[in-house]
Write a structure and sequence with these properties.
single chain; 5 strands
Length: 82
């Protein structure tokens, strides 16, 4: 379930206040490959075993916030460096 356009208009990165936008299929595919290869941790230090099906990418393209069942997880420690 994608994030609504109305919500996307008001969401920003909690760290930098940059806008976020839906992650492209290319970004999600590369992240999934990296997670399956091992060694990817979120910014809180937790090893990731499953790639997110959806995500929101910060405007600078450096950080992805996962979306869980249509709900953006906008916590810095849950974000993933790209």
């Amino acid at each position: 379930m994608p994030v609504s356009e109305e919500l996307l208009e008001i969401l920003v990165c909690p760290e930098t206040k940059q806008p976020v936008s839906p992650a492209s299929d290319d970004v999600l595919t590369k992240l999934a490959s990296d997670i399956r290869a091992g060694g990817v941790r979120n910014r809180g230090g937790t090893q990731l075993d499953e790639p997110p099906a959806e995500g929101l990418v910060r405007e600078d393209g450096k950080i992805l916030y996962p979306v869980d069942d249509g709900i953006p997880v906008m916590l810095i420690e849950e974000s993933i460096e790209l």
